[in-house]
Amino acid sequence: MFHPKNLLRKTFAATLMLMLLGAATALAQSREVRGTVLDETDQPLPGAVVTVKGETRGAMTDAVGRFSISVKPTDVLVVSFIGYTDEEVPVGTQTDILIKMVPQADQLEEVVMVAYGTQRKASVIGSIATVDMEQLKMPVGQLSTSLAGKLAGIVVMQHTGEPGAGADFWIRGMNTFGANSKPLVLVDGVERDMDLVDAEDIASFSILKDATATALYGVRGANGIVLITTKRGSESKPHINFKMETGIVSPTKLPELASPEQWIDYYNGLYTDRGIDAPISDYQKARYLSGTDPDFYPTVDWIHKIFKERSTSSRMNLSVSGGTRTVRYFVGGNYYNEDGIFHTSQDRYDAGMSFDKFSFRSNVDINISPSTTLGLSLSNQFTDTNSPSSDRNEIYARTLAASPIGIVPQYSDGTLTVPEQGYNPWNQLNNMGYRTIKNNVAQATMSLTQDFSEILTEGLTANIKFSWDAQNQTVVYRNISPAYSRATGRDADGNLIFEQISGGNNYMTLSSSNSGWNTMNLEASVNYERIFAGAHRVGAMFLYNMRTRTNNVPGSSYIAAFPYKHMGVAGRATYSFKDRYFAEFNFGYNGSENFAPGHRFGFFPSYALGYMISNEPFWDGLRPYISTLKFKASFGHIGSDQISSDSSRRFAYNTTINTSAAGTLFGDTPSSKTGITTDQYGNPEVSWEKATKANAGVELSLLKDLRYVLDFFYDRRDGIFILRQSTPSAVGINVNQYVNIGQMKNQGFDMTLEYDHTFGNGLYVSARGNYSFNRNKILYNDQPDQVWKYQNTAGFAYQQQFGLIAEGLFKDEADIAQWPTQQFGSTPQPGDIKYRDINGDGVVNDYDKVAIGYTVVPEINYGFGVSLGWKGFDASVFFSGVAHVTRIITGNNLFGATADIKYEGQIFADVAENRWTPQNPDPDAKYPRLSLENLKNNQQASTFWQKDMSFLRLKNAELGYTFPKKWTQRVGLSTTRIYLQGTNLLTFSPFELWDPELATANGSAYPNMRSLSIGLNLNF
Amino acid sequence: MKKTILYIAAFLLVSAVSCDSYFDIDFQDQANLEEIFAKKNTTERYLVHLYSYLPHDEDTHNGDGYVIPRSDEGLFGFLGYGPFNKLRSGDYSTAANGDVVQYNKWKTYYVAIRQCTIFMDHVDLDTEDTAEVKAAMKAEARFLRAFYYFCLFRQYGPVIIWGDQLAPEDAVGEDLDRNTVEENVKFMVEELDKAYADLPLTLTEIGANDSWTGRATKGAALALKSRILTYAASPLYNGQDGGRLAGIFQAKVNRDGKQIFAAADGTKWQQAADAAKAVIDMNRYSLCTPSGGNTDIQKAASAYQNVFFERWNSETIWGWWHLGIGHSGGGFATWIGATGSFMYCTIPNFPEVTTSYRPLQAYTPSLKMVDAYPMEVSGRYPVLGYEKSGRMNDLSRPIVDPASGYNPGNSGTDEDWVPNYTQPVDADWAPQFKAHVSTTGRDARFYSSIVPNGFYWPSDKIRKRWTSYKGADATVPVDKLESAALNWVGYACRRWYKANTAFATGQDFTGATRYVYPAFRLAEIYLNYAEACNEKPDRRVDEAILYLDKVRSRSGLCGIQQAYPEIDFNSADGSFTIAGVTKTGKEWLRWLILQERWCEFGMEAMRHYDMCRWMRAEDEYPAAAWTLKMDSPTYEGVYERVSDLMPMDPADFHYRDYFYPVISTQLSEMVHFTQNPGWE
Fold first, then answer.
1. How far is the CA of A217 from the CAs of A398, A566, A571, in angstroms?
2. For residues A996 and A652, which has the higher predicted lDDT (pLDDT)?
3. Distance between CA atoms of B135 and B48, rounded to whole angstroms?
4. Looking at the partner chain, which of A565, A785, A902 has a beta carbon nearest the beta carbon of B480?
5. How far does the CA of residue B31 sit from the closest CA of chain A (Å)?
6. Is the backbone of residue B212 left (phi > 0), alpha (psi -120 to 50) or beta?
7. Residue A297 pLDDT > 70
């Protein structure tokens, strides 16, 4: 018996030993035969695999479709190529064989990635969506960024445009209001970060959505799964793929702020509306607007002072793949660079944002015997991010806040300054130092696959895989606190006279922090796949896996130092009869360390049935029109074991003590004493969160060109981890206990429509579209009923927005008098927002806030696009969009600042132009009254500020030209393509203040980027 | 190959068997409750935690001191920070997401109560302390638990009493309701009696060195008992003075069918008197005495200032260190420690102050507070009340007691000004200046608490007048009304500012001296006793006057009978009229004791609870945001009272505001809970 701690280590050793086993078989006596493989249009077909039937010997065709192979006269050659039917040719006496391939009549033999393996596409009855990798190749830094709209059932939001930032995404929306609603991402079968994979390295990308597809992952699969496999080599001479692109990036939208003139009028109006003298006289206003004295009368366009119009990005990929009969390889290197749009002007250092990513991947497969394959995969990603030392969110916020006349960014002679109140964002960007983040990830996987077809029984294989990943990150801050001065006047020579505000220093102080993780993963599986009597196809898989993930830098946290462990077994059994009737059973049986003994392991079964009616004999007449019609349904249970999102709570059964609790000061002279108190109460009953998933779908192919897939789903989540809320607070529990009692449901549908057709004149058209709808609802969250039950959050979507219902602006005093009293700050005046008294109690207060609109996660996600190809030219456009998404916006740029307005009181240009004023007493004005006072009434969450954030984007557009092969082959190139590609080129949205996709309620965020690149792709 | 399969099969079998133990975590290094209480050091640290819930009445920003700007003694001028002003205008609801919900301390104190009980249930595990020390610590937790119940009692009225038991975790909210006032008071008093028995007289008795000063002693238990019984005897908790409100309050019945507020019982004042006398009879505490000063008024001021600035003085029965928690978040918490936060919020925004965080001057006394302090010579209170417009007090129309010697200075002539005035308390260094007559001739406490517009700021380190108006020659010009750093009222509060402290730089704030907040001090006990003696069925006017005069004389004032010779305080029926205000002798003495409490405990969070327990707030609080005319272009023009400058809603108060409502968070947990009067 292994001691658990040593289990991984010993297994690793065993794996290594196994790899030494196995022997090469001797080659039989033979002669050489040559041949050419052509496609249906008589063009040479490079990369086709030619094997001797019944043996593993084989060859691959070269760039002109030629091959040669050693054969015996009795051998039969099997030629295969993806998308074509295998051709079998007896060798006989031929010495130069011409083989013409026929394209596959249907997709039956296509293979789809599924959990822990692959399945023939025809057999798949779970809900799985795959995307053509070409669709994901976009001039962006992170893979997640390119997913929007590409797959049915996925929700993607690009929440910031900072270089190197990925996107947030969910599969079929949010299924839980518990700790973790994010999908599990598996790269080559191992849980890894999606954004560390370069799109060029990916062979397949699929998402698993329903219970059948995900059940094998047991306690980890409830939120759906992303499966990525990277490219591997095949038997061929070396193929070299080189790709280079460079382009410009520019913001999709920068907020528009009030001009100096608009702002001065607004500022003066705040005073004159109250009958007080304008603080900026006409003379001063003229001085400001003339721009003749920027030191004392500055006018600053802060947005454009801080942000540039454009920047650059570039990418380079080089990969080589190929191999021999015994060794196959794929080796690729990638480089990506993007510079940010911060306007920096510092000579000593670069405080601008930039992101550089270097990655490398090597996948090697070695046949150590005819039936034994050893795989070795190594990859490394290094990213280097540079940014200002100051908190960037603060820079964005200050940039929006800074008034256009408050302060000069820097005096004309270079002297640095800060305003009397508030901040100078120019200093925060340029003059306070910079920070670098260097992140390195190394991933390694060894695997051994043994085919037992010849040894035990046909169709039986076994695989053992071991991987170890390490990640480390270092953040280095270099900070400066410069001296600031303020000009008080000019001397006789016209030079500025300064008064120092604060002394500073010129040197940098350095601080740094580290973080890192290491992960070990072990997986062993047995696979069985066989057809009996030409009709009964059976498959089975049984798998064991375990994973240990350790925080290398746990700090002072005792709990964080424990490795995160998972372990489990999983199995699958499939059966199909003549590809008409399908049945599948999957299960995961696995455990989590988070729970008490006895509550750790769970069994998660799923069942699925499918019926391919189009394969029935009676369908024969219909088949030319309706080539495929398949119905499928699945049902099953999956789990989730995460208790809290920030890892602050693990081991739900453990009672903890807080030894650094609040204390107080005692003593004759103050002496600080720390307290000790009870912390989390352990709950031995807590176990995993359970998802029940049901899916029903139909797949349809018409006239071979048009394919349609529709899936309806229902997901019910029980036992969501929540902090107990219903214990009366008078009991005095200081830290609420975690319990498994939350309930939520999520339902909707997703569909995909694809059309591919090549016309007689060679015009190739491919169009695709997808549409997903998901709506969730909290069923139970242990919150006691609110005083007014319509304020209960249960019964609504997770993160449902609540607010008042605005009824326009108050017209006049009479209007206010006849309206219920609004209890938000001071008594309303004309031009203030009027709200509906929901409960009819005669006053409008917080009790009148009801569910309004949607959430910030869209319910509807869709994408559509078309690609055209003709004689070497290709063009494609792809749109993606979201709908049923709202955000309640807020902030001083809308409400007006109430303190230090002169320095930090900027407003949006739209507000300056379209607000209610005594001079423009329009009750339908777009924005309410602004005042020196803090008008709480106008700042309430309400339908007034709730904005529809739906949008439609031209996500990607590409124009390419592939040079004719007859030209390029002369210089040894198999294909040469140049292209022009753009992302986020156009955005259509009812919301206009800033990019609607950004995760900000007040506009202070780094804008999302539009990019335009030119690229060159060479294949040798 | 067969070996390989066997190996894999065996491996899978083995791993499946060892599954559960793979996840076992060894928590042996982690602390647990038994270990904590086994050691003296960690037991003490658990005890420390029980003190972390102290209400910090001195913290007007985040602590229970919010009642200061809520009452009529102060205004909070940082208008961007809304909650105070919403409380003040009565413009709030029971909604859990309302603006003032941060003052909902319901859960905080119940958490504190639970922690006290956990401590009491475990302290006997301590193997390193003697039984006597353990008993003392248990009594300390018992005292604190009673104190936290009292914090709930003064804010919410009578609450749920869990007794000596840990509140059950599976308590059903639907079954919970208030205990009666009687049960609340009985529990708190009995607990304090038990605590008194085991608490030490001094900390040295239990071997605690001077790093532990601030822990509860016998005195603390008795002082708290005095305050509780004084409140319990007062009309709000005791019969509501009969009439309409008594009907409303006494109609409240809990789920057990018990009347929550009982009819008046005069003997409660006897209990209050006895409790106060018990503290006095300990003979352990004495009023602060002067530590400097040349003139009588300087000596009196010194004695009064020592209440704050002499740490753990002879008058302090129990108190705590001010934590400097006035500002949390941002850069404030890190460098504005100690008294810094108060200084930051009170000192003028002089141009010399070059810290990057400019002073706010947000905490200001109200004009009513300014009017409250007595005259030095006559010993009489200058203002007896205000004319009203409807329910609103008009602070520009004070009812002045002509015999007090006070001149409100509203004639509009030179008579309103004293050209070469010397501020008596700072006379040693402060030059003469032109002062408004209403600011002259006041008592030592006035000059120790208030800095009127035009006075020298009490620091000879800067020697600078604080003049604030809308003119360039003002030392703090009122140049823009949007500024947070504006003293709207025209009077600054210097009560927390230790005279002669510099404040030019951030370091001056950081280095500012922390002070001990004298939460329970002897002056209160004297005035509790005086009040109870005046009210109890067999009145002891002589005792009342004796102890009232002790407090007055510390501040240099004459005896009350000397100040008000025309009133016979013994007379419970005869009526006496001053400036048109008529009261009986008993009522005048009550008014004078409350007025004395107001001045003595100015900005010490006492006023609000006094006005509530006497149910006077409905009458006293309603008023617009009266200020001096700070936007005047001249200094002389400033001394005019206006109500339209400060953009703040009028203060208002209705009977429902006597208790903070049980807010919707709690109501939804306890659907049958009896809400406070007026909040149903």
1. 46, 11, 10
2. A996
3. 16
4. A902
5. 6
6. alpha
7. yes
For A628-680, the DSSP string reads EEEEEEEEEEEEE----TTSS---TT---EEEEEEEEEETTTTEEEEEEEE-P
Tell me how far apart the alpha carbons of residues A337 and A315 are, in angstroms, rounded to a whole number.
6
**Within an 8 Å CB–CB cutoff, is residue A843 touching chain B?**
yes
Q: In one letter, which amino acid is B170? A: D
In this prediction, residue B339 carries a pLDDT of 47
CA neighbor of A177 nearest in space, from A855, A693, A818, A831: A855
Query: Cβ–Cβ contacts within 10 Å for residue A719, how many?
Result: 20
Is the minimum CB–CB distance between A492 and chain B shorter than 8 Å? no
Q: Do A936 and B99 touch (CB under 8 A)?
A: yes
Q: Of A44-58, A822-836, B206-220, give the lowest mean pLDDT range.
A: A44-58
**Between B135 and A965, residue with greater pLDDT:** B135
Give the pLDDT confidence of A462-487 residue by residue, as tens digits: 999 999 999 999 999 999 989 998 88
pLDDT at residue B336 greater than cutoff 50? no
Chain A residues in contact with B482 by the CB 8 A cut-off are 270, 897-902, 905, 932
Q: Is the pLDDT of residue B1 over 80?
A: no
Q: Which of A:93-122 have CB within 8 Å of B?
A: none
Which of A45, A29, A25 is CA-nearest to residue A37?
A: A45
Rounded to whole angstroms, how far apart are CA atoms A460 and A528?
Answer: 4
User: What is the Cβ-side half-sphere exposure of residue A267, based on CA atoms within 13 angstroms?
Assistant: 28
Q: Which distant-in-sequence residues (6+ apart) come within 8 Å of B422 by Cβ?
A: B430, B432
How far, CA to CA in Å, does A416 sit from each of A51, A427, A900, B351, B664? 75, 8, 20, 20, 52
Residue tagged 């030319």 (tokens) = A624
Which of B403, B407, B383 has its CA nearest to residue B393? B383
Q: What's phi and psi for B128, nearest 5 deg?
A: -105, 0
Mean pLDDT of A435-449: 94
The amino acid at residue A477 is Y
**Residue linked to tokens 């951030």:** B506
pLDDT value at A365 more than 80: yes
Q: Give the tens place of pLDDT for each residue, B384-411.
A: 999 999 999 999 999 999 999 999 998 9
Size of interface A-B (CB pairs under 8 A): 288
Amino acid at A319: S
Nearest partner of A988 among A947, A957, A950, judged by Cα = A950
Per-residue 3-state assignment (H helix, E strand, C coil) for A43-56: CECCCCEEEECCCC
CA A1017 to chain centre: 26
Task: Say if residue B202's pLDDT is above 80.
Answer: yes
pLDDT exceeds 90 at position B201? yes
ipTM of the complex: 0.90
Whether A7 has a pLDDT exceeding 60, the answer reads no
Chain CA centroid to CA A973, Å: 36
- Is the pLDDT assigned to residue B232 strictly greater than 90? yes
Query: Which carries the bigger pLDDT value, residue A462 or residue B5?
Result: A462
Chain B contact for A731 (CB, 8 A cutoff): yes
Calpha distance A765→A981 (Å, rounded)? 19
Closest CA to A949 of A859, A863, A817: A859
Report the distance separating Cα B178 and Cα B256, nearest Å.
Answer: 9
The residues near A827 (Cβ < 8 Å, ≥ 6 apart) are: A816, B649
Kindly tell me if the per-residue pLDDT of B576 is higher than 80. Answer: yes
C-alpha A858/C-alpha A999 separation (Å) is 12
| Single-letter code of the amino acid located at B583 | K
Chain B contact set for A591 (CB, 8 A):
19-20, 22-23
Q: Which DSSP symbol is given to A616?
A: S
In chain B, residues with a C-beta closer than 8 Å to the C-beta of A675 are 45-46, 48-52
